[in-house]
Every structure is written in structure tokens, then in C-alpha cells.
């Protein structure tokens, strides 16, 4: 039995077959405040964790006398690998012996453990936007250097020698004049807290050439426990006396339950409590399987009148073209340069095309779930959840209970996928509402159907692109209008600063359909880059220029982008003749500060309309790459996630109701449809790291569409390219 | 209904309504949480276990169907991550979020039981029912090949 206040301990050496919280009274966290950060204050006296024994070197690092080093991980681990990458940053600068490093989850306290926010605003512990490694790169290396300073200072005092005569090797302090050595473990056995650790300036940190861990192959710390079933997801947490819960939610967003067959449900086997909520009805009991049966029998009369009721996604998407043409509707301008309209009028030739895309769903493998135990007084709670936004979850649950966030304790668990869905806290707040009603721990599990039908989707949209070229074939005008619901979810990726086009106008025409929308992997880049890269390709082909050469010409003033594109083209051997019935397509994109390009090799089964992507050759410039093998894995992952959305994924609404329900009609990519090969070339760089987890995604749509065009002459302009759509396009 | 079966080599007896899915018995009542709930309809493979050596989706297998039989879960595959597939999974750094991987490994273990040296096509055909949303498919194929090599040489 593990006590509930024990931090979830991620490490490869400890196998946790089960994680069961102790019965003896759930403790309610008071605060982990009162400690000062080595980053943001001068003192360092903070326990790295209450559990692991050993000396607290800094707020981030603890070392025991055997030299085992515990490093705290402030980020959510959802498969992107940052719990290893962040520990590597600290270990690198403190010269730790990696074989002795373990990683534990840090407390949720952004003042100490957060990374700097956008534009330097505040400190955050939200794991989104591929921000983690780039946001922590400097602070955690400095934290590692400070831990090293504490070790050096203690060794110097012990040996009574000047600190300047000391150096370190992994796990060891060495006195240069005498070659005396002392291990970090020995130092930890007598180490005293060091006050006034000096700030370590960037120039005092290691140079890239001195790195022992950064940029090298370091196996991911979470992988061993993910091959024997012992890795702990919140789905696996069992709290004594807990009730399971399920919720029947409104099929149309915004409607409320008016009445339901309460008596019948209450009489069913195993049902302990029924809790009406604003958007649904919760059913609680000791056995989850009983709840599933009861939920099937639950009949709810829903209120009417939600704005989403009239939402028919296919019909409305068709109508977007009219909105784009309507002069009445002025858009919100995202970027403006020169005069796009008059440049279009003066252009030698003009081009125009509409690109459409349907809603898509996150489909993370672990359905949403959370365990919340509201205390008997109703003014505090303990939460077990996999969340990208622990601080958001704490804040929202505190609001619900009308209490201070200090009285909410969250135990972060592994996330069985996030992709943006778990940056929303709706599922945690629901569990808290149910627990508040019964004053018992409640484990709320969403079924796959719940997860899909009450999803929060990447929005559908229409993108109208207009361009003009001069008599020499130079791109001189560019207009891009995005029509749809979702505001900033739509604008992501619309700008193309790496393309040198003198006259540009990029805008959003916003609508509101009242359905649930959310960030999805790479946000809007999936569809905006698809449209941009397809359009560039269409123009190139019409102008009689090789699309790769046309790209190079447009990005001639962006050397970094050019190199990324050229690397992918070289890797693929662009220009060679593909095998019979195959074709190549090329595409480029930036995302989260990084740049990527790829060439896709595709074939097409004309009878069925099925596209097959055989090979992908890709390149990535993400600055210094902390974990190269993991970066390759993230590219493979984002490319497959991207291809899946490009080829088959779509959510449709009728009368405001989601039409898909599970993996039989929401089709995600399976092994048989994955490319046979994905090649990834990482470009060497000494620049600061940029994001990686999403960068492989936006390049997929354009590359596939352009390859299909090269193969068949058909321009696919509506995501996803389902066999039915492709067949229809081939027949027309 | 009282049901008796072998679970990871040990005799197990429990009282359950016969229609209860094996998945909820394993996870909720026996606290073997390595077997995952992903879809509840036999569509994703996250709950794959072995029933008398055959891969089976625990979410759609009623407990009555395992009476008198032998069930192996990821917890029973090896005691110490020593199964050739587990070693190959670590070597190849397959898992990302990891949630589907118990099911992937159990499916692959059943494949290697019946086919010591599967071709790429045979691997794909056998594994196609197991979804990995992180897209680790190419590494899964590589890891199965590595494990098969070890099995054949060992």
C-alpha cells in the first residue's frame, strides 16, 4: 500500500504492479509553499521529495549516500519523453552519473517548478505547444549547474581547499592539485545547505562540444515500466472506498437534463447514487460494469434550444464558400504586407482555390478519467489524474468547492496520450462534482463513446487562397482567408514568414456554431499548412516549374528553411523517377519554432480510391536536440498521426450530434496503413532547442496531396482524403 | 456464479455474474491493471490477453468463457521484463505514451508462439487489430523482428 500523499514515482528500477492509496484517512495537502526556489530566490532549502531519503542539494535534486540522484520532473509525461529530457538537462550540468539518476514527479508549484511563459510572463506548468524542453532548456541547465556548485562547495569545505581547485567528472568531485576524489554520494552524506548560490550565467554553462548527455542516446526512463504493465495511469489508480462513476452527457452541447427515469435506474443492481449535473446525469456504484448497464437504460429528457442544435457540419461547411465570397464579412487580419488586392489585379496570372477540412478527434488511447476525493468538510480534495494542465485542474476544482487551491492536492499520473485534449480539465471537474455530492472518492471513467461524442475537436474550416505571379513567374500576391469556428485554433500556422511574398493578406472570418473545440496536436497547422503547401504546389505545376525548385525560389531569403527543404529532398533523392504507379510529393512547414520538410511516396488504388503512403523522407531543424532518438520517434509519431488525419479521420455532426462513436467509424491509422519506411534526418544545430512533438504533423497533408496530384492530376482539396472522396474526384 | 480458472499460472476462483467482461474482473477486482481499457468493443486491442495461449480481447470476453481455462496477462508474461519481446521493446525504445503497449506485446507474444519467424507482412496482418495512437508501428515491427531473432538463435 502506498500512502496517498506519496508522489508518483517514475523510475525504471521500481516496479509498481499496483498503486493503491492507503485507507488511513486521505490527507489533504496544505501547501508545498514556503520553500524557496534556487532559480527565483537565493536559498535552496527544499526537500526534493518527502519520500526519497538523502540530502537536498537544491529544489530539483536530492542525493543519497549511495550516490543515487533523484531529479524532479515538472512536466506531464504523455509519451513525448520530456521526463527524461528534462532530467538530462539537470544531469548534464551537474555532471551526474546517469546510471544513478532516478526521476520523480515534482510538486505542482509553478513559482518553483514552472517554466517561463510566453513573452516572459509568469511561470507555468502546463505541458502544451511543444514548449517543455525549449522552455526549460536554460533554467534547468542552470539548476543543474547550481546543484554542481553546492557539491563543489561542500567538497571544498570538507577538504579545506579553494573551490577553484576542484573539477567534476560524472558523479565525482576531483581536487586537481592532489587528484583526490570524492563521490557525490560521499558528499551528500555530510552536505550542508548552501545559502546564496550564485546565479550561473549562460556563458558559464557547458559548450555543446562538452555535452556528455545532451544530444546523445539516453534511453527513456519511462520505457521499462511501459513494457510490463506497471506504469501508472490514473485509469489504474484504486483508492479505498471509492465509487466508480459514469455520466450520460447531453448529445447536443449546451442542452441540460430536464428529467430522467430515476426510479428505474435506482432499482438496478449495484447503483448507489444518481447525480444530476448541468450537462448530464452521473451514475455511481461499486462496480463499473454495473454502471455501464444502468447507463444503457437511462432515459433523459433534454432541454432544447442550444445553438448547436442546428449544426449540420457537412451542410454548413458547404456554405462556407459563400461566406468567403461575401464582401460583407470582414475578417480579422492576422498578417498584412504590401497591398495584396492591387497586386492581384496587376498580376500576370492569378490562382484561386478553396481547401476544406473536417473536424478531427484526439483519440488518445486512454479514455478520459480521473479520481477525485473531496474531503468530508467539502473544502479540500485530492486528485489523481493524467493532465497536461495540473494547475488548471487545481484551480477549477478549487473554484467548484469554493476553496483555496492550496487545499487541492493533485497526484500527476502518466497520460495515456494527451494531444491537447488533456489540457482541458472538464473530466477532472466532473469527477470532483460527483465526489462532492457523495463525499467519497470517485473514479470517473469515460467510455470510448463518451470520449468521442463529448469530444472537443480540431475545428472544421474552409480556406480560400488567392495568389498572383508576375510575368517572370514570381509569386507577388498572396491572400489567405480562413472561415470557421475556433478563433485562434484556426489561425495557427497561417503565417509563412519563410516565404518571400511582397504582398500578403491573411485573415480569419470567425463563426460560432456552439460546439466543443480544442487544441489538437499541432493545432491548426495540420490544415493551414496543408492548404498553403498544396496551393504552392498547384501554382508551381501550373507555371511549369518543379515544385521543389519553386519552393526553393520562394524561400530563397530564409536559409534555415531552405536547408531543411533541401535536406528532405536530398534524402528522398528528389528528381529520380519513382517506381511504376508511384509518385512523390514535397511539403514544408514550421511549428513551435522548429522547421520540417518531407517527401512522400504514394500510390493510388483507382478501383477503391484508397491512397497508400509507402515512404516518407523527412528533415527536422529543432535547434539543439536533447534526445535525438526520441526526436526521431516524435517525428515518426507526428507523421503517422498526421497521415491518419489526412487519410481517414473525420467527425461529423447532424442536428448538433456527433455521428461517430468508436474506432469502427472513427478510423485512426493502423499498422497496415502506416508507411513502410519513415526516414528522419535531424539537422545539426547549436541554436537553442525548439519544439519537436508536433513538427512532423503539418508536413503530411501537402506532401500526400501533391503526390496524388503528380500521380493522377487530381487535386484533393478536402481533408481527409477518404477513399470515397478520392474515387469521386477520379470519376469527375 | 462461481468461476474457476488459471490466472498467470495460479488457480483463481471468484464470484461474478457470468456476463461480466474479463477486463473489469482483471482490472477492478483482481487489481491487475496492466491490461488496459481502450474501447470496450474489441476494436483497439489495448486489453489483449491470452486465453489458452490465444490472443483475446478481454473487454468483450465474458468471465463465463474463461471458466476452466488459462488466462495470461502482461503481468504473467515474465517476472522481470525478460521476455524477448520486452527486451526488444526496450532496446527499440518502442513505447511513447505506453497505454496500448501491454496489448501490443501480448498480441506479438501470441504471434511468436504460433510463428517463430514471421515476415513483415505476417507481422502486419497479425498486429493490425492493435491501435497505437502514438504511431509506434514501425518500431513495433522492428522489435518483433529482433525478438524473433533471439528466439530462433536461443
Automatic annotation (TrEMBL), chain B:
The keyword Transcription does not apply. The keyword Lyase does not apply. InterPro entries: 2Fe-2S-bd, 2Fe-2S-bd_dom_sf, 2Fe-2S_ferredoxin-like_sf, 2Fe-2S_ferredoxin-type, 2Fe2S_fd_BS, Beta-grasp_dom_sf, Diverse_Oxidoreductases. Keywords: 2Fe-2S, Iron, Iron-sulfur, Metal-binding, Oxidoreductase. It comes from the Bacteria. Residues 1-77 form the 2Fe-2S ferredoxin-type domain. CDD domains: fer2 (cd00207). GO terms for molecular function: 2 iron, 2 sulfur cluster binding; metal ion binding; oxidoreductase activity. PANTHER family: BLR6218 PROTEIN (PTHR44379:SF2), OXIDOREDUCTASE WITH IRON-SULFUR SUBUNIT (PTHR44379). This is (2Fe-2S)-binding protein.
